[in-house]
Specification:
- The complex is a heterodimer of chains A (about 550) and B (about 325).
- Helices cover about 35% and strands about 25% of the residues of chain A.
- With about 550 residues, chain A is α/β, with parallel strands linked by helices.
- Chain B has a domain of about 180 residues: MetI-like (MetI-like fold).
- Chain B has 14 helices and 2 strands; from the N terminus they run ααααββαααααααααα.
- Classes of the chains: A alpha/beta (about 550), B mainly alpha (about 325).
- Chains A and B meet through helix 2 and helix 3 of A and helix 1, helix 9, helix 10 and helix 14 of B.
Chain lengths: ~550, ~325
């Protein structure tokens, strides 16, 4: 495998995990190469070891995790054998890296241009004045509006997309031969993601860099990759040209992963109007105010939910879709009265949830339950599963013994072993915890479930299982579902109708197939066009 | 910024009045009053004499009237008169303030500088023997009662080794002037200031260490390493500055105690400061002196809270904007 155009060759790399980890090696016998001018995507689910070889390359492995065999050849130098000083000289200059969370990847206390100038400083290049000038040039190149102003800004003053552009500018500063991008668009909204992907592809072409793009998202792969390596549990299971791997996956795992991606094709839903109404929302409004008061300075007002009305049919799944800051989660929280709406009504069995108080609210609340995004933070780590599930019914007067028996039944219903009742949340995986969250919501025998980004934190294969479970339960228990998500693919798969929100306003409401096939508003159209991998899917379908 | 400071000052004034009022009632709720103590000491505890004293001190008026008179004075920065010491309270406090501020400021600087430094060192050598040593010593400082440490320090450094003076502010009858006097006071200062600083030194150390370790796991530190920056620079520029935010909060809390926090130390070391004044006033139910000391301490706490908030705005641009 001596390819002259390879800038990087990884041969038989093995990285050991500390004792007590779930497997001995984070990465085991991994070999691949990276050629100049190509984008190689390393794809895998969480825990697959996809970021490990990149971190080893940069000498940035976590403590106690170290390479135990193999080599990483950068041209002809083995990076694993380099001294810390020699490796530091390569970092930033020959190999640069960008990360997932552009907010936390920038120092919150330093101005943007100082952080970019540091790259030159680290390698003793240019004078301080020249560094600043270069910083502004770089910011211009990555397409930040008003680069002079952005240069003097602090990270918190920029949007997520702008911050990622700053990271990219920083990585480009010394014209590196290799750019490692570790999930660089995962934390971004879909329209911003599309822009950043395009930027990376453009810059790659202009500078002739080799890009190693680490991602969990096959949509992103379809959008940007020349070649793909699929990783599972520390090994590369499939490796090849992007088109070949996506269109004709050879390995079972790759096939399973690709099959698990929610398809954009939406079925024609039954007419919602013919159904009985489970919930009616009229003119819901929620405004956040901060500051103000006697000594608080100027008041800031955010219209999170602005005069929104919709109906939810019995047995229907209604998607609420939008980017961050669109107000979709505020709608969910107002529906279950975790927050009090400022105006409007939420009609449930003739009662207005929005104005109920005290005992009445407690009783009505039983019939509308919520599932949360983060399966780790939403379960009390000190409570056993049985208690977590039975707590609600017990609070509503069900005898403890009966509630625990019901909890065991519910665990069975969501596909977990009833013995889980005596275990703690940390003993379960993310997907299992989300099932526990669903069991908890079902414990009060609700008519309506609000799922707030309920599958967003899950890997794609787990996500598919949880979506199937939700769909199945909905039919069996005749539930109505409000499904809040930023992911249009997920919405396309599970929702009958979809409400698109932007900046607190309801932009469009229609059946899933109408929204995807004939979007009426420009905003909906831009959201759909930004979905990564969409064109490839259309081509395959068409 | 100016608007922020002005608003905060108004707020502070309101809080100060509330504190004075609360203190006033608390003190009067305790049994005994200055007239009773003085009459007792004079050995003439008959009703008429007691009544005369009460009238003289204004203690015969209804409590609310007394409060009104006191508040009216405070607003004009008149803290009343100590009949016990036959001096205006403000003057008494003013006389004692420099000694206390010298002691507490020295303790503040010693604990902040040494504590932070030790914390940084420990965090850079985490898990090694020097980290263990620093952490153990800090725990010891943290757990040692102040008065015990003070007495032991006097025993060891003053009585046994005879290196440093064990009590007082300067050598009695030394009649030093100029630089010699400064040196004399500095020698007297070392023991009380270091003892007083022990506790906070330990707290700063532990907080700095924990904070440095936490910040060093954050993403932007990884970014800094990926740029190829040298470890020393990453420590100073990226980790240290971010790690100092909680330490600033704590320093603000300690600074608030600059006036009222040295009662024990001043008593053990016979340091002629506010702490001693307060201690004596308490024994003698000298209401006006006590209220005066409380007033100045409270004002100090509020002042340093404000200074902390301003510092925070200087250090952290995110707070400046919100």
């Amino acid at each position: 495998m001596t390819d002259t155009s390879s800038v990087l060759q990884i041969k038989g790399l093995q990285i050991a995990l500390p004792e007590g980890a779930d497997r001995p090696f984070a990465v085991d016998d991994v070999s691949y190469d990276l050629k100049a001018g190509e984008i190689l995507c390393i794809v895998g689910e969480s825990g697959s070891g996809k970021s490990m070889s990149a971190n080893a390359m940069m000498g940035l492995l976590p403590d106690l995790v170290r390479p135990t065999a193999g080599e990483i050849l950068f041209h002809d130098t083995d990076l694993l054998k380099l001294s810390e000083d020699a490796l530091r000289d390569l970092r930033g200059k020959k190999i640069a890296m960008i990360f997932q969370e552009p907010m936390s990847a920038l120092n919150p206390l330093m101005r943007v241009d100082d952080q970019i100038a540091e790259v030159f400083e680290a390698h003793d290049l240019l004078s301080p004045a020249e560094r600043r000038t270069r910083a502004i040039e770089l910011l211009t190149e990555v397409g930040i509006p008003d680069p002079e102003k952005a240069a003097r800004a602090y990270p918190f003053q920029l949007s997520g997309g702008q911050r990622q552009r700053v990271m990219i500018a920083m990585a480009l500063a010394l014209e590196p031969e290799i750019l490692i991008a570790d999930e660089p668009t995962t934390a971004l909204d879909v329209t911003t993601q599309a822009q950043i992907l395009k930027l990376i592809a453009d810059l790659q072409e202009r500078h002739g860099m080799a890009v190693m793009f680490i991602t969990h998202d096959f949509g992103v792969v379809a959008e940007i990759a020349d070649r793909v390596a699929v990783m599972q549990l520390g090994k590369i299971v499939e490796h090849g040209n992007a088109d070949e791997v996506l269109d004709h996956p050879q390995h079972d795992y790759t096939r399973k992963l690709i099959a698990a991606i929610p398809k954009l094709h939406a079925d024609d839903a039954e007419e919602a109007d013919t159904k009985k109404t489970a919930l009616e929302v009229i003119g819901l409004t929620k405004t956040y105010r901060s500051g103000g008061g006697l000594f608080g300075g100027p008041e800031r007002v955010v219209h999170a939910v602005n005069d929104i009305s919709f109906k939810l049919g019995v047995g229907e799944t209604l998607g609420v879709v939008g980017e961050s800051g669109s107000g979709k989660s505020s709608v969910g929280r107002c529906l279950v009265r975790l927050q009090d709406p400022d105006q409007g009504s939420v009609l449930l069995d003739g009662e207005d949830m929005a104005t109920l108080t005290g005992e009445k609210l407690r009783t009505v609340r039983k019939s509308i339950q919520m599932i949360f995004q983060d399966p780790f933070a939403s379960l009390n780590p000190r409570s056993k599963i049985g208690r977590i599930i039975a707590e609600g019914p017990i609070a509503h007067g069900v005898p403890a013994k009966q509630a625990y028996a019901k909890a065991a039944e519910l665990l069975d219903l969501v596909g977990l072993d009833p013995s889980a009742i005596d275990r703690y949340p940390h003993e379960f995986s993310g997907g299992q915890r989300q099932r526990i969250g669903i069991a908890r919501a079902l414990a009060l025998e609700p008519e309506i479930i609000i799922a707030d980004e309920a599958v967003s934190a899950l890997d794609v294969s787990i996500q598919a299982q949880v979506l199937d479970l939700l769909d199945d339960l909905k039919t069996r228990l005749n539930l109505s579902l409000v499904f809040i998500t930023h992911d249009l693919r997920v919405a396309a798969q599970i929702c009958d109708r979809i409400a698109v929100m932007q900046k607190g306003n309801l932009v469009e409401l229609g059946t899933a197939s109408d929204i995807f096939n004939n979007p009426k508003s420009d905003y909906t159209r831009s959201l759909i066009e930004a979905i990564p991998g969409r064109e490839k899917e259309l081509a395959a379908a068409g | 910024m100016l608007r922020f400071i002005a608003l905060r000052l108004v707020k502070a004034a309101v809080i100060l009045i509330a504190i004075v009022t609360l203190n006033f009632f608390l003190i009067h709720a305790a049994p005994g009053d200055p007239a009773a103590v003085m009459a007792g000491e004079a050995g003439a505890a008959d009703e008429i004499f007691l009544q005369q004293l009460k009238e003289q001190f204004g203690l015969d008026k209804p409590l609310l009237t007394q409060l009104g008179i006191y508040l009216a004075g405070v607003v004009q920065l008149d803290l009343g008169f100590s009949y016990r010491q036959q001096m205006p309270v403000a003057e008494l406090i003013w006389d004692r303030l420099p000694a206390t501020l010298l002691l507490t400021t020295a303790a503040f600087v010693i604990s902040l500088v040494l504590g932070t430094l030790a914390g940084v060192l420990a965090s850079a050598r985490v898990g090694k023997w020097s980290d263990t040593l620093i952490s153990t010593v800090a725990l010891l400082f943290y757990a040692t009662p102040l008065y015990w440490a003070a007495l032991m320090a006097v025993l060891l450094f003053s009585v046994q080794l005879n290196w440093l003076p064990g009590f007082g502010y300067e050598t009695v009858g030394g009649n030093y002037t100029g630089f010699a006097r400064v040196l004399d006071i500095a020698q007297h200062l070392i023991l009380p200031a270091s003892t007083l600083g022990l506790f906070f030194m330990a707290v700063y150390m532990r907080m700095t260490r924990a904070s440095m370790l936490e910040v060093s796991t954050l993403d932007f530190v990884k970014t800094a390493r990926a740029k190829g920056l040298k470890p020393g620079l990453i420590q100073r520029r990226h980790i240290f500055r971010n790690a100092m935010l909680p330490v600033v909060t704590l320093a603000g809390l300690q600074a608030g105690q600059l006036v009222g926090g040295a009662v024990l130390t001043e008593t053990v070391f016979a340091w002629p400061g506010i702490g001693r004044l307060m201690f004596d006033a308490l024994a003698q139910r000298d209401y006006n002196v006590l209220l005066g000391v409380f007033f100045v301490s409270a004002a100090m706490v509020l002042l340093f809270n404000l200074v902390t908030d301003i510092l925070y705005r200087v250090v952290d641009p995110r707070i400046r904007a919100s």
